[in-house]
TrEMBL record:
It comes from Polyangium jinanense. Residues 7-107 form the Rieske domain. GO terms for molecular function: 2 iron, 2 sulfur cluster binding; iron ion binding; oxidoreductase activity. This is Rieske 2Fe-2S domain-containing protein. SUPFAM superfamilies: Bet v1-like (SSF55961), ISP domain (SSF50022). It is found in: Membrane. Keywords: 2Fe-2S, Iron, Iron-sulfur, Membrane, Metal-binding, Oxidoreductase, Transmembrane, Transmembrane helix. GO terms for cellular component: cytoplasm; membrane.
Length: 330
């Protein structure tokens, strides 16, 4: 399965403690564990003992090795096994490359040459991380996140008013490895306190500028506001990185890392409060997206036969790159 040749986030780092943790990615069941001092060395193995098929995630970590709870066979992070009853035996478990970065645990097929994704968040502060599971295939889940026509109906805060969607500009550019979409239009009306929190004014233009990559499938959003009279940017901005991880053919995990520029609240000691509120509404918007995806009547990734709008051009471009880059077909 070529999809596993790319790095995928599968767990938040703080979710992996002393006990092994089962995960599912691209229809493969894996087990993650911390070896050595409990933190420095990570292991990722197929979640099945090669002896008699026991789930290794039901076992324990002992002496830096994952011990199967059935017969006591043990496995190192590289998959090298030991059999207490037959010391000369050389069993092995399927092992995967695994690293911990950005507060996430990532895996890929062992030895695959995919580059690790990089995030440019200099000047930004991490305000939150969340994982949501969409009951929809990878392509259909990604579709929702690479068009803004749904924002009037689905989003409560970040997006455009339905009656003014015709004013929203949408510019799509692409390379062999990416698809970029720049959207600009009037921000939908917000509760008055949020204007103060976001340091914006009623009537401001909202910019949603994102680029989608395909090794792994991920999108980085730059969201900010413009003064419509001068075109100047307001001081606040969000940068949100979302990684789309197939769990099964019909389920997709969404890992989101949310960042914000420093708000001018330091002198009042209110930065933490502002970030908490911002994080809360980012999580809320993601949940609304996931809830909507679960209610789709047609979850087929096939686009032929569907009536598409001017906001849907990225869908076809993304599918081509998923096939050629992510799935290595064609």
């Amino acid at each position: 399965m070529a999809e596993l040749d790319h790095w995928h986030p599968v767990l938040f780092a703080d979710e992996l403690g002393k006990k092994p943790a089962p995960v599912r990615v691209c229809d493969r069941e894996l087990v993650l564990f911390r070896a050595s001092d409990g933190k420095a060395t990570l292991g990722a193995l197929a979640d099945v003992c090669p002896h008699r098929g026991m789930r290794l995630s039901e076992g324990r970590v002992e002496g830096g090795r994952l011990v199967c709870p059935y017969h006591g066979w043990s496995f190192a992070p590289d998959g090298e096994g030991k059999c207490p009853a037959t010391p000369a035996a050389r069993p092995s478990a399927d092992a995967f490359d695994v690293v911990e970065r950005y507060g996430l645990v990532w895996i890929k097929r062992r030895g695959a040459q995919a580059a690790f994704p990089t995030l440019d968040v200099s000047g930004y502060h991490l305000i939150g991380k969340t994982r949501q599971r969409a009951e929809a295939p990878l392509e259909v889940t990604l579709d929702n996140f690479i068009e803004v026509e749904h924002t009037p109906e689905v989003h409560a805060l970040l997006g455009y008013p339905r009656e003014r969607m015709a004013e929203v500009t949408c510019e799509v550019t692409s390379t062999e490895t990416s698809v970029r979409v720049y959207n600009e239009g009037p921000q939908k009306a917000l509760p008055r306190p949020l204007y103060t929190l976001l340091q914006i004014e009623p009537g401001d233009s909202f910019v949603d500028d994102w680029t989608t990559w395909f090794s792994p499938v991920s999108t980085v959003y730059d969201q900010y506001w413009l003064d419509p009279a001068t075109g100047e940017r307001r001081p606040n901005a969000l940068r949100i990185a979302i990684f789309f991880v197939p769990v099964t053919a019909g389920q997709t995990d969404i890992f989101a890392l949310s960042y914000a520029l420093a708000a001018p609240w330091d002198r009042y000691g209110l930065n933490a409060f502002a970030y908490l509120l911002t994080r809360a509404f980012v999580v809320m918007e993601l949940r609304r997206d996931v809830t909507l995806l679960g209610k789709l009547a047609d979850k087929s990734p096939e686009l032929r036969g569907k009536t598409l709008s001017r906001f849907d051009k990225p869908l076809g471009l993304a599918r081509k790159r998923i096939e050629t880059i992510y799935r290595s077909r064609g």
